[in-house]
Amino acid sequence: MIHTFEIILILLVTVVVLEAAARRLALPSPFLLLPAGILLGFVPRFPTITLDPNLVLLVFLPPLVYAGSALGSWTEFRRNIRPISLLSIGCVLFTTAFVALAAHSLIPGFGWAEAFVLGAIISPPDEVAAISIARRLGIPKGISAVLEGEGLVNDATALTVYRVAAAAVVTHSFSWINAGGTFSMMVAGEIAWGVMVGWVMLRVRRMLHNTSLEVTLSLLTPFIAFLPVERLGGTGVLATVSAGLYVGYMSSQLVAATTRLELVPVWQIIEFVLDGILFLVAGLQLHRILAPLSRTNHVLLCAYGIGIGLLVIVLRIAWVFMIAQMQTMFGLKLRRGEPNPRWQRLFIVSWSGMRGAISLAAALSIPLLTSAGAAFPQRDMVIFLTFCVIVSTLLLQGLSLPWLIRLLGIDREGRQERAASGHQEIEARRQAAEAALALLAARRKDGSYPEALLDRIEDQYRYRSAQFRAHLDGDHDGAVQHGTHRYNVQAELIETERSVMLQLRHSGVIDDDILRRIEKDLDLQEMRLRQGITEYNLYADQQEEPLK
Fold it and tell me: Using only C-alpha atoms, what is the Rg of the chain?
């Protein structure tokens, strides 16, 4: 018999293998994890793994949402607040309404309330898939910021509608006025609570001056933001997003450098593990989902599943282009001071609406019984249709998305944008180096430090400033070649120092504690060296013709 611990190990190994395969295929990992989970679910004697919806909504969702927001950009979120709001609120409500209309009209036995439950569950694209796409496929920052922002916020809209609709089924009562008032109060309350949690946690962490304690408090932050709101009847998503955005924006001012260096890898590992397990286990649920529907006409089931999946895709495309057309008609801009996006960009945004495991978790959390003790109507069908939408959007849209990005030239836009961003980074580094040189000159005048020390430090900064200026003035070949030689020499020196330290440890001259302290310093030097300007291929991209 396979025990729980061994099952977890099997899942982790599978996630690592599929992530490595996804990287070689240049695909976001969810596109492989979900089909792999489906196949594993039908392997004879493979252990049955049940996706507990409470576990997903209370354990997986808070850290995933928080990591996405804390590692994201508040500046880009704020700049794109209009398109993000139109997608995360407008498109979710639009999709929910039309899916409910279709389910009520075409599927026998679907009342309005349970039809809205289905619409709310499958209306929001999954933030995990959206962020994976944005970070893996190299799309332009504007598209990436919109997809990430939408993925972080739309669950709040959808879960609110879902809870109202589910409550209507259970209690057989509904009020549009009460529902609207509840939604508005939830939004305002969750944002205020999330910002307050972020503000308090950052200041508590600053007082501790201990990296281990700060990392622990950082891991607790999403749950402190999420759980109280969720227990009071809210979704907790907006509170967690608000806390993450605030912490991410203020961490440069309120978090020590050593803590930041350790926190980012910790959250990246958590995000990777939770993402992978969530999609893999979601695929394993198909066998369980099909069991209650074994007596239903399989042809009808397939027709309903394909129809709802295609409807969801079409509705998102229709919404994106309809809003863009309305913006043009009324002379409005999605982003102030910028032209409205080309149709190619709009299509990529509209085609990036993959659904994921959060929708499945919401479907599985539908109550079994109503207040009258009767079975929740169409519960099994809702779960089945949700799974069909997840599979159809991930496979159809997800697998075709990289090809479409290349076909429409979006990848070239992304490369040109990254080249421009590289120039901005070099200019920022140059200005920082010039400011440091000015400070050194001031210290030289007031005699604060020995001249020999100032000379050595000034040489380093003058070299860096000269390299940055060479890049910016167009001497790319010389700057890159010189920078590459410097990189190679420094890399060899670091490796030589590391070899000496290992020999000294092996011969017993130093112990492991001394080795680790020196090794950490060498690792930081190597990391800084690898993140220098020599790794940027900024100028080959600029040789391409500009997009018309």
Answer: 27
Torsion angle defined by CA atoms of residues 310, 130, 88 and 123, in that order, rounded to the nearest 10 degrees: 30
What is the pLDDT of the chain when averaged over all its residues?
82
Contact residues for 383 (Cβ-Cβ < 8 A; gap 6+): 289, 360, 363, 364, 366
pLDDT greater than 50 at residue 43 = yes
CA distance 219 to 201: 11
The backbone torsions φ and ψ at residue 369, rounded to the nearest 5 degrees and listed phi first, read -130, 155
Cβ(468)–Cβ(430) under 8 Å?
Answer: yes
Tokens of 413: 């836009």
Q: Find where tokens 């695909």 sit.
A: 27
> Rounded to the nearest 10 degrees, how much is the dihedral formed by the CA atoms of 348, 309, 96, 29?
-50
CA distance 108 to 170: 20
| CA-closest candidate to residue 105, choices 94, 93, 92, 119 | 119
Helix 410-446 vs helix 343-351: crossing angle, to nearest 10: 100
pLDDT tens figures, 10-19: 889 999 999 8
Q: What is the mean pLDDT of residues 208-235?
A: 90
Instruction: In whole angstroms, give the CA distance from residue 508 to residue 222.
Output: 45
Structure tokens at 154: 């739309």
Instruction: Report the C-alpha gap between 128 and 133 in whole angstroms.
Output: 9
Measured N-to-C along each axis, helices 512-530 and 476-507 cross at an angle, to the nearest 10 degrees, of 170
Query: What is the C-alpha to C-alpha distance for residues 315 and 298, in angstroms, rounded to an integer?
Result: 26
Nearest to 359 by CA among 385, 381, 378: 385
Q: According to the model, what pLDDT value does residue 520 have?
A: 84
In this predicted structure, the answer to whether residue 334 has a pLDDT above a threshold of 90 is: no
CA distance linking residue 328 with residue 342, whole number of Å: 12
CA distances from 79 to 73, 275, 324, 327, 336 (A): 10, 27, 17, 17, 8
Q: Which two tokens stand for residue 289?
A: 């989902």
In angstroms, the Cα distances linking 12 to 46, 278, 280, 320 are 15, 11, 10, 37
Average pLDDT over residues 162-168: 76
DSSP 8-state symbol, 58: I
Query: H helices within 209-297, ranges in order?
Result: 211-231, 237-254, 257-284, 286-290
Q: What percent of the chain has pLDDT over 70?
A: 87
Q: Which residue blocks in 355-396 are alpha helix, DSSP H?
A: 357-364, 379-392
Contacts of 173 (CB under 8 A, 6+ apart): none
Helix 112-122 with 92-106: angle, nearest 10 deg: 140
Q: What angle do CA 325, 85, 252 make, to 5 degrees?
A: 130
Rounded distance between C-alpha atoms, residue 389 and residue 305, angstroms: 7
Q: How many angstroms separate the CA atoms of 54 and 118, rounded? A: 18
Report residue 305 as tokens.
């599943």
Instruction: Tell me the CA distances in angstroms from 540 to 291, 415, 483, one per residue in order.
Output: 55, 10, 17
User: Could you give the CA distance from residue 245 to residue 225 in angstroms, rounded to a whole number?
Assistant: 12
Torsion of CA 409, 411, 413, 417, to 10 degrees: 180
